[in-house]
Amino acid sequence: MTIIETRGVWLTTTGSQVLKSRELIAEAMDFLAQTGFNVVFPVVWTKGLTLYPSKVMQQTFGVKIDPLFADRDPLADVIAEARRVGLKVIPWFEYGFASSYNLNGGMLLAKKTEWAARDRDGNLVNKNGFDWLNSLDPQVQNFMLDLVLEVVKNYDVDGIQGDDRLPALPSEGGYDQLTVQRYHSSFRKNPPRNPQDKQWLQWRADILTDFLARLYQKVKAVNPNLLVSMAPNIPDWALKEYLQDSPKWLEQKIVDIIHPQVYRLDFPSYKSIIDQLVKKQFAGMSPRLAPGILMKLGNYSISAEYLMQAIEYNRDRGISGEVFFFYEGLRDNNNALAKVLQNNAYTENASFPSLSDLNKSSVANNKSSSISQKLLNFWRNIS
């Protein structure tokens, strides 16, 4: 029986050189295929710039592509090299509705000041260093939708991916004049000063859910087999902080596969979140779930033991796959973690789930006993 699992990894421009040349991309695709991966999520929208030649960006902001890649098309290179070795490609719109990082909105808001997200005091929304576009504004939504559709219409991709910034808005936002007027027309009063008022939270989250529904429909109109993939933060925190109501996305069937960022630094914490997802927020949705696992960030690197425990627990809970942040974690220490995957959990080849697979009641081949044996062998080998 063919194993059907999501075995994915994010490709970044931060902390990585992979996208800097066609040669480095080719080497990375060879490496991932040999390790047992079957899908890559290359960044295509970051720091307010695209990593492909964009007519939308050229017409709106006068910048066709990130100047670092002015003479290339990194997305086209990734697709060509991934196809060569049988990997799926789902472009990742990393920045989503963020406009810049501590640059007062950067180029985007310098040219479109009316697109700024505003807090209750009228200030540009900045959360954890990120400056934000107003994702509740129909013009901003149409701009983002145009970027996504530009990719799916012009490139041979397998889907598109949003994350903790798409669709999203820090809950401090929504106090711009347009949104306040919209709220007032519905409730005959201004929004509450408390940005985390329950009703105010849900009203804004529903606007973003409606946007995702529209994005989903537009992508499917281009090609019904394209996957709409989302990597939000974990519920219910994501709703309270970023207006992301991901359980409703799944309930409304406007996301095909979801990768909540279960970025925890130890296995007990990871296990606790997975239990909540499977039993509560995403109950009955395990076939569509492939959690995001933090492999590397700054000085942190996941241990081999935790890595294998997480994969085994995923399978035990009927979760057939995971996505790792990010590629360079596989290459540290002479490819140590890649070797762990290749020699243990990813020894057998696996097919990336198709839309029809995801629509079935379960795509999980019951591999838990097999992986448990591999984990046992792994512990024996390191003891």
Characterization of the model:
Pfam families: GHL10. Residues 6-305 form the Glycosyl hydrolase-like domain. This is Family 10 glycosylhydrolase. InterPro entries: Divisome_Glycosyl_Hydrolase, GH, GHL10. Keywords: Signal. By secondary structure, the chain is an alpha/beta fold. The two termini are 33 Å apart. The protein has helices at residues 22-35, 55-61, 74-84, 106-111, 138-154, 177-187, 198-222, 237-242, 246-251, 267-281, 304-316, 328-343, 355-359, 368-382, and strands at 6-11, 39-42, 45-46, 49-50, 88-89, 98-101, 126-127, 130-132, 159-162, 227-230, 257-258, 292-294, 296-297, 300-301, 321-325. It has a five-stranded parallel β-sheet with strand order 5-2-1-15-12. A three-stranded antiparallel β-sheet has the order 6-8-7. Helix content is 44%, strand content 12%. Helix 10 runs parallel beside helix 11 and helix 11 runs antiparallel to helix 14 (368-382).
Biggest sheet layout: 5 strands, parallel
Kindly report how far apart the N and C termini lie: 33 Å
Radius of gyration: 21 Å
The total count of strands amounts to: 15
Shape: globular
Could you tell me the strand content as a percent range?
5-15%
Q: What class would the helix/strand composition place it in?
A: alpha/beta
Q: Which ranges are low-confidence, i.e. pLDDT below 50, for 5 or more consecutive residues?
A: 362-369
Question: Strands of the largest sheet, in order across it?
Answer: 5-2-1-15-12
Order of helices and strands: EHEEEHHEEHEEHEHHEHHEHEEEHEHHH
Task: Report the helical percentage.
Answer: 40-55%
